[in-house]
From TrEMBL:
<dbReference type="InterPro" id="IPR032710">
    <property type="entry name" value="NTF2-like_dom_sf"/>
</dbReference>
<dbReference type="InterPro" id="IPR027843">
    <property type="entry name" value="DUF4440"/>
</dbReference>
<feature type="domain" description="DUF4440">
    <location>
        <begin position="18"/>
        <end position="112"/>
    </location>
</feature>
<dbReference type="Pfam" id="PF14534">
    <property type="entry name" value="DUF4440"/>
</dbReference>
<protein>
    <submittedName>
        <fullName>DUF4440 domain-containing protein</fullName>
    </submittedName>
</protein>
Amino acid sequence: MTDESERAVQAAIDGEMRLLDPEVRASPARVLELLDPEFIEFGASGRRWDVESILTVTSGGSVSLESPVKVSEMAGVVLAPGIVHLTYFADNQGRRAWRSSVWRLTEAGWRMYFHQATLTG
């Protein structure tokens, strides 16, 4: 991987980890800094989310300070210039899921464009 690709993947990982931070999630303004205006998510529940609906969930304390999301197997790849795909495993208080997100570089910085979660047994 080139230095530029490594920096792009690291920027996406940094953004992903910020979105999992309970303090960031509690602030709609901070979440909006990380979500693309065209953001879409297919959640582990099977529900489709957009920016407005996800702000309701994130600001509602979906991740607690006492039990942060445990992340493992984080990996990223540059799909094209300015586009990074991340995959990882997340455990949120026993709710375990494989997660996948697409980040794109905008004038405002790296923003999550798409996210999907698939529950595991």
